[in-house]
């Protein structure tokens, strides 16, 4: 069996949940602002969809962070010394907050400086995430992985409610700069519980394992997991890349989309995460992942029909949008990220878990940029129809790959 981290028996899972959860919320505030809030604001100002798709280039650091994850892990877990997770999180969180302040000062025009600034913020955030994930996996015993997974998925939806929901309402009422300044303050404050929490109690240790990408890629669990991640993310996320702009073009204003994002993330998303966690325990991850893909296929076909007819009641459009972007997504990603934790070696959890997330981010980025191009040239109906076909085709592939989960577990224990 893979050895557990040195903190497993010393730190309450509930404390880890609260402090690490704050970091995941902060990361998702930035992600929600960038991936959902900003495209919606830009479309509201009349920017073409293919240019809005360039926002997904900000995912690049998340897609490539596996390249520097071994260096982060080696710094975080020195051969002799204390765990340095706290130092990485405190310094990185402060830089992220400062970066958002700069974005508030520059404004939205021209767009390129904003994108460059957001890419730099994403680089810092993704680096902090390596330390955060590593700390969670090594600190929590296997039976408590559900705590970490709930903190990650639940924190993501709560952060998205703030970064994509509250943020849009604030932009609509007070303008871009004040809204961004408030998000910077939220990001900074959310990092304080971790900086002054259990991470301060790390002991001086001697470590004999050197984290590396080669070690990770030698394990069958990691290799199969990367394929599962790439296919599943393409199925779930590609069809939702242009959801914000679609809602604006359908006639909703910024405040309404903001409330929709906020309510969906805080209520439907959290409910989906809880249901997903229970369903994984009752029926297994394979069942939950396959079910989520089939449900998302139906939602994408509904969006294509909404655009084609142009006459669907707004209440139905809102309901499907909330269920698709929050409920179904949360349902499936609880199962997927729970598997990520199980497939990661606690001795280099920051490297292993980062590889899975990079597959997620790289596929998301490619789909986001391509989504803008397709939607601009062929319309939303074609875009959602293509996404639905990809989603449906992924279902049997995921099911067959996940049938080998026992093999993955065996590989993880070697």
Describe what you observe in this structure.
- This protein is an all-alpha fold and 414 residues long.
- The chain has one domain: MFS general substrate transporter like domains (Growth Hormone, Chain: A, Up-down Bundle), CATH 1.20.1250.20.
- The chain has helices spanning 13-44, 49-52, 60-64, 69-76, 85-106, 111-139, 145-174, 176-190, 192-195, 213-217, 220-237, 243-250, 254-283, 285-309, 314-343, 349-378, 380-402, 405-412; strands at residues 80-81, 205-206.
- The chain has a two-stranded antiparallel sheet with strand order 1-2.
- Helix 11 packs across helix 18.
- The model is unreliable at 1-9 and 406-414 (pLDDT under 50).
Summary tags:
414 residues; mainly alpha; Growth Hormone, Chain: A; two-stranded antiparallel sheet; 18 helices; disordered N terminus; AmpG permease; transmembrane helix; AmpG_permease/AT-1; transmembrane transporter activity; MFS_trans_sf
Report the oligomer.
Answer: single chain
Roughly how many Å apart are the termini? 6 Å
How much of the sequence is in beta strands? under 5%
Which sheet architecture does the biggest sheet show?
2 strands, antiparallel
Topology order in helix (H) and strand (E) letters: HHHHEHHHHHEHHHHHHHHH
Number of domains: 1
CATH class annotation: Mainly Alpha
Low-confidence stretches: 1-9, 406-414
Number of strands: 2
Question: DSSP helix count?
Answer: 18
Output the structural class.
Answer: mainly alpha
- State the strand order across the main sheet: 1-2
The percentage helix is: over 70%
Net shape? globular
CATH topology: Growth Hormone, Chain: A
CATH superfamily: MFS general substrate transporter like domains
The gyration radius over C-alpha positions equals 20 Å
Average pLDDT number: 82
CATH architecture label: Up-down Bundle
């Amino acid at each position: 069996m893979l050895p557990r981290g040195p903190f497993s028996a010393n730190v309450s899972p509930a404390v880890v949940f609260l402090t690490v959860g704050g970091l995941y919320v902060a990361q998702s505030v930035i992600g929600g602002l960038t991936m959902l809030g900003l495209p919606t604001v830009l479309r509201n100002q009349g920017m073409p969809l293919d240019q809005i798709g360039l926002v997904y280039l900000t995912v690049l650091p998340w897609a490539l962070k596996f390249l520097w994850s071994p260096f982060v892990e080696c710094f975080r877990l020195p051969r002799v010394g204390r765990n340095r997770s706290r130092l990485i999180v405190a310094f990185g969180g402060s830089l992220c907050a400062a970066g958002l302040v700069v974005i508030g000062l520059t404004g939205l025009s021209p767009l390129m400086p904003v994108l460059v600034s957001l890419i730099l913020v994403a680089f810092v955030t993704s680096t902090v995430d390596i330390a955060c994930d590593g700390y969670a996996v090594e600190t929590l015993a296997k039976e408590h992985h559900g705590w970490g997974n709930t903190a990650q998925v639940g924190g993501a939806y709560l952060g998205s409610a703030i970064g994509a929901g509250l943020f849009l309402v604030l932009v609509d009422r007070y303008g871009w700069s004040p809204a961004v300044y408030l998000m910077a303050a939220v990001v900074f404050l959310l990092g304080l519980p971790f900086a002054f929490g259990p991470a301060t109690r790390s002991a001086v240790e001697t470590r004999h394992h050197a984290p590396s990408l080669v070690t990770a890629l030698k394990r069958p669990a990691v290799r199969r997991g990367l394929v599962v991640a790439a296919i599943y993310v393409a199925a779930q996320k590609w069809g939702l890349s242009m959801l914000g702009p679609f809602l604006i073009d359908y006639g909703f204003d910024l405040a309404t989309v903001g409330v929709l994002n906020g309510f969906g993330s805080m209520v439907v998303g959290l409910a989906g995460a809880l249901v997903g966690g229970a369903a994984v325990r009752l029926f297994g991850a394979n069942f939950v992942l396959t079910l989520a893909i089939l449900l998302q296929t139906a939602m994408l076909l509904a969006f294509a029909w909404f655009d084609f007819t142009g006459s669907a009641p707004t209440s139905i459009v809102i309901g499907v949008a909330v269920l698709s972007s929050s409920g179904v997504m949360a349902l499936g990603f609880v199962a997927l990220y729970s598997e990520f934790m199980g497939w990661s070696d606690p001795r280099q959890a920051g490297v292993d878990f980062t590889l899975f997330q990079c597959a997620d981010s790289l596929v998301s980025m490619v789909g986001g940029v391509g989504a803008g191009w397709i939607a601009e040239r062929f319309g939303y109906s074609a875009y959602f129809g293509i996404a639905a076909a990809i989603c449906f085709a992924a279902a049997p592939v995921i099911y067959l790959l996940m049938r080998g989960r026992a093999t993955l577990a065996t590989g993880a224990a070697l």
